Amino acid sequence: MKQNNADNLHKELEELRKENMALKKELKHLKRSEALYKAIFEFSPSGILIVDRNGNILEANPAFCKNHGYNKSELVNNSVTMLADSDNSEKVKGHVKRLLNGEPLQHRVTNKRKDGSIVFVELNERRIELPDGQMGIISISQDKTKQILTEQALKSSEKEFSNLIKLLPYGVLIYNLDGQVIYANREVMRILKYDKNKHDDILGKSVLDYIHEDDVEKVKRRFEGLLKGQKQTSIIEKIHKRAIQYTPEEIEADISQAIKEVREEK
Questions:
Q1: Shared-domain flag, residues 58 and 139
Q2: Smallest Cα–Cα separation from 127: which of 57, 76, 51, 65?
Q3: Are residues 138 and 46 in the same domain?
Q4: Rounded Cα–Cα distance for residues 212 and 175 (Å)
């Protein structure tokens, strides 16, 4: 009987030893995972924000702080709405509610830096379970400010260029690699005797339709050379037997006048 009790005790001790070893192994694994998570969080080039179910900031990584001009201590325990202007506060609260309901969001927002300047960010957000078992939100942000400002500047430049082309007193015809007309300014429409408001009458047609038959082959060869990357000397094609030539001084004066008119239209 005593021997059986001793054997049972030995077995129990052995099981406890194995469980203890397993717990130590799991704890070691958890510590490694925590260290990995911390490294990713701290060194990620993307901004990372952890928010609780009430919309209060729990964690902010260095990239997020840098992008928004705050120290971490200035963000933690404050509402995430501090990053939005007053007009968008309710919208932010709506996003928090949707996320807590399990809806992942990927969208662009306009945030406010500490100095009051604007930062455009692209957000990937989803619901997560926090260490205390409560629901929270992880928000990963990419700073898109330079990209968006560049796009806006390009659109502005394109609009000014488009207005300039429209007002130039020289015919401007743009066609694609298949030789189909994709743009014609007012002067081209006038030269070809089209109604200036009926661009559909010319768009999509072959540019060769508007070249005099004496010059069709010359234009074809020039076009083939351009496709091969060859430099082409400037030539004047006859457009329905019309040949219009301007001096450099006349061109410079007319372009200056067109630019002036574009600026006055603004």
A1: yes
A2: 51
A3: yes
A4: 17
Q: Identify the domain containing residue 89 by its residue range.
A: 42-143
pLDDT by 10s per residue, the chain, length 266:
555 555 565 566 566 666 667 666 666 665 666 776 787 888 899 999 999 999 999 999 999 999 999 999 999 999 999 999 878 889 999 999 999 999 999 999 999 999 999 999 999 999 999 989 999 999 999 999 988 888 887 777 777 777 777 777 777 778 787 888 888 888 888 887 888 777 778 888 888 888 888 888 888 888 788 777 776 554 444 444 333 444 445 545 555 555 555 556 55
Residue with tokens 């067109």: 258
CATH number at residue 227: 3.30.450.20
Do residues 121 and 108 touch, judged by C-beta distance below 8 A?
A: yes
* Contact assessment for residue 243 and residue 236, using Cβ atoms and an 8 Å cutoff: yes
Helix (H, G, I), strand (E, B) or coil at 132: coil
Q: Are strands 135-143 and 57-60 parallel, antiparallel or unpaired?
A: unpaired
Helix spans in the chain (H) = 2-43, 62-68, 72-75, 89-100, 145-167, 186-191, 216-227, 248-265
- Listing DSSP states for 240-258 in one string gives TTB-----HHHHHHHHHHH
Pair of tokens at residue 160: 């000014």
Strand 47-52 to 181-184 pairing: unpaired
